[in-house]
Design goal:
Elements: H1 2-22, E1 35-37, E2 42-47, E3 53-58, E4 61-66, E5 72-77, E6 83-91, E7 95-111, H2 113-116, H3 131-136, E8 140-147, E9 167-169, H4 171-174, H5 179-192, E10 195-202, H6 214-219, H7 225-235, H8 237-252, H9 273-279, E11 289-293, H10 307-322, E12 329-333, H11 345-354, E13 361-365, H12 380-394, E14 406-413, E15 416-422, E16 428-429, E17 437-440, E18 446-448, E19 450-454, E20 457-461, E21 470-473, E22 483-484, E23 494-495
Parallel strand pairs: 1-7, 7-10, 7-11, 8-10, 11-12, 12-13
Antiparallel strand pairs: 2-5, 3-4, 3-6, 6-7, 8-9, 14-15, 15-20, 16-22, 17-18, 17-21, 19-20, 21-23
Helix pairs in contact: 5-12, 10-11
């Protein structure tokens, strides 16, 4: 009797397993209410029983494929123009019906806390400008939002950690999404009049190497310092865990533990860990482009010198992974902030500027909307709108001035440096005289200088440096920066002095 019961149980278990295997599934990034990228082939993928036939139908296109020996399937449907809503049907032995799918433009917002910062702000002391007013007005049914939960992995994952799925942009959903991402999406939607999908994949306090694949990090000998830096951090982790234990013991005894400096989650700093868990699962989905705001964590001594190599490598990595060689990648140059004097935001900003040699990249300058005492400035509207200007020019091919004065070249002539810019029409200073300039001789010692506007260029000189050879602008962590163009966009900080 016991043997018969065991056989019945085993048969039922096997039947259940087979039934579960037969269920066709989709990754979490594909769900009702989503936006599919217009004018690109529609990629659908998931799991099913090995050898099972899977079909898909959307709008006026359909396709069929067979799950491989591991149970994975993938198919492409014909590209579609903007429109919707439409249903999406996936059939195997079971049927999945997704509803309210729009076709428009899909953007990924990523980076650390200044991109993560939600429309509601982090807290009362770290707010978003006009937050409650902005939240109340955030009713845009044609903007769809997906928030990726924080997660790490030692290898690329096939699917995201559990998410709530795509949602319409409402005051309730918008308050939790990236403020920069929201303002960007709103500006593009209002200009392009198409549905916008925003994937918010962010994690505060994280370095660029955590968002870069191990394939790229390990292939470049010049990026090996990433791993030595990781080793040094882990050597201090035991002491940090001990302090956490002491703090927990104090709380258990009703004591108030001492205030300690903020420390990042060590898992979020592992090379490739965030790429593996929060980017790799979405790269099969065609997108319009990426907006990125990160760099503060890479500004520390021993790390900042590597950014000029690491950041472009990460951008090219994502383009390779997405199979979109010219994928628009728009990023924010770090705002002004009274950072730790040991950190060099000038070098980091200049590394960001130099990354513009990559095709289809754009840099939104935010030096003028920083906060000396808060690393998270409140004016995210300006940042989102400036990213949108870049998108209109780079991704949507609109003929407009999308950036402020951008250093082109400089040469010495007698006792002055002559400096030329791109986007320089209508050069002006916000307070009458351009400030924030310095010059240096062959010794590389910079001194404050006087700048004079001459049409679309500047002459910069200092009586203490009679034979200048180098010039820089807005170099301090929290600098004076007053140079703009006629479009009202700020000039980007730069240096002509050799830096890594």
């Amino acid at each position: 009797m016991k043997l018969l019961s065991a056989l019945v149980l085993a048969t039922a278990t096997a039947a259940t397993t087979i039934a579960m295997q037969a269920e066709v599934t989709l990754p979490k990034v594909i769900s009702s209410h989503m936006v599919l990228q217009r004018d690109m082939p529609i990629h659908l993928w998931g799991d099913a029983t090995p050898g099972e036939q899977v079909s898909a139908a959307f709008r006026n296109t359909s396709g069929t494929t067979t799950a491989d020996t591991t149970g994975r399937w993938s198919l492409y449907l014909a590209a579609q123009p903007a429109g919707g809503p439409y249903p999406l049907t996936i059939k195997a032995t079971n049927t999945l019906q997704l509803d309210d799918i729009l076709v428009g433009d899909l953007w990924v917002a990523s980076g650390q806390s200044n991109m993560e910062m939600p429309l509601a702000g982090f807290n009362a002391t770290t707010p978003i400008k006009d937050s409650e007013k902005e939240i109340a007005a955030a009713n845009y049914p044609q903007i769809r939002l997906l928030h990726v939960e924080k997660d790490t992995s030692d290898y690329p994952l096939d699917d995201l950690k559990a998410v709530t799925g795509w949602s319409l942009c409402t005051p309730d959903t918008a308050r939790k999404i990236s403020a920069v991402g929201y303002f960007f999406s709103r500006a593009i939607h209002q200009k392009e009049h198409v549905a916008i999908g925003l994937i918010d994949s962010t994690w505060g306090g994280t370095p660029a190497e955590a968002w870069t694949s191990m394939t790229v990090l390990s292939a470049d000998a010049g990026l090996m310092p990433v791993f030595s830096a990781r080793s040094r951090k882990m050597e201090t982790q035991a002491a940090a865990l001990r302090l956490q234990e002491l703090d927990a013991a104090d709380k258990a005894q009703g004591k108030t533990p001492p205030v300690r400096a903020w420390r990042p989650d060590p898992a979020s700093h592992r090379p490739a860990a965030l790429y593996n868990a929060m980017i790799a699962p979405i790269v099969p989905l065609p997108i319009r482009g990426v907006i990125w705001y990160q760099g503060e964590t890479n500004s520390a001594p021993g790390q900042v010198d590597l950014y000029s190599r690491l950041f472009p490598a990460m951008i090219q990595d994502w383009r390779t992974q997405w199979h979109q060689a010219d994928l628009p990648f728009l990023f924010v140059q770090l705002s002004a902030y009274g950072a730790n004097p040991n950190d060099n935001w000038g070098i980091l900003r200049d590394a960001q500027r130099r990354t513009l040699h990559l095709i289809n990249t754009g840099m939104a300058v935010s030096i003028d909307v920083g906060d000396e005492h808060n690393i998270h400035p409140a004016n995210k509207q300006a940042v989102g709108d400036r990213l949108a200007l870049l998108a209109r020019r780079i991704a949507y091919k609109e003929n407009l001035v999308a950036a402020g004065p951008l250093f082109r070249y400089a040469y010495p002539d007698q006792n002055a440096m002559h400096v030329w810019f791109d986007n320089a029409a209508g050069l002006k200073s916000s307070n009458g005289t351009p400030q924030g300039f310095e010059v240096a001789g062959t010794d590389g010692i910079f001194t404050p200088a006087t700048a004079k506007i001459e049409g679309d260029s500047l002459t910069v000189s200092s009586p203490t440096t009679p034979a200048p050879r180098y010039v820089r602008y807005a170099w301090a962590n929290y600098p004076t920066a007053t140079l703009y163009n006629a479009a009202g966009l700020p000039a980007a900080p730069f240096t002509t002095y050799p830096v890594p």
